[in-house]
């Protein structure tokens, strides 16, 4: 699987959110390389944990901005955050239990997970914040 490349299409137009997304893309690429290079399951699990932890922090950051600027779609956006984290944590448990190794299919799932959220919910949030900030 190819690395994710940050480009303008992923920009939501809010620097602090875009900076977070760049970091998440970077960690995703480390995870992708770990799987491609056949790194140990413990290493892969550690990188996945880092991706999840940074995503949780990022979602908290977005939610703080939504609260500060009274974003009217916050409940829906926050529910999507919770769903995304739950699905990533479920995958993490599968990997940690050793039920199956992390494979390209999991990487593709995480890439969709990240890009679809940015290109839908986060673009709407970015558009709103660009108008009120």
UniProtKB/TrEMBL annotation:
Coiled coil: none annotated. PROSITE patterns: HEMERYTHRINS. The keyword Iron applies. Pfam families: Hemerythrin. Residues 13-123 form the Hemerythrin-like domain. GO terms for molecular function: metal ion binding; oxygen carrier activity. It comes from the Bacteria. Signal peptide: none annotated. The keyword Transport applies. Keywords: Iron, Metal-binding, Oxygen transport, Transport. CDD domains: Hemerythrin. PANTHER family: BACTERIOHEMERYTHRIN. Belongs to the hemerythrin family. This is McHr.
């Amino acid at each position: 699987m190819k690395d994710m490349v940050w480009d303008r299409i992923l920009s939501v137009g809010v620097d602090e959110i875009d900076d977070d997304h760049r970091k998440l893309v970077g960690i995703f690429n480390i995870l992708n390389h770990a799987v491609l290079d056949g790194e140990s399951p413990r290493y892969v699990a550690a990188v996945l944990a880092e991706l999840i932890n940074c995503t949780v922090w990022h979602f908290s950051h977005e939610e703080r901005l939504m609260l500060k600027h009274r974003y009217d779609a916050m409940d829906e956006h926050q529910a999507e955050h919770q769903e995304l984290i739950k699905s990533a944590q479920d995958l993490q448990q599968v990997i940690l239990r050793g039920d199956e190794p992390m494979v390209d299919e999991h990487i593709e799932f995480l890439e969709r997970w990240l890009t679809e959220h940015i290109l839908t919910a986060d673009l709407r949030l970015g558009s709103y914040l660009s108008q009120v900030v």
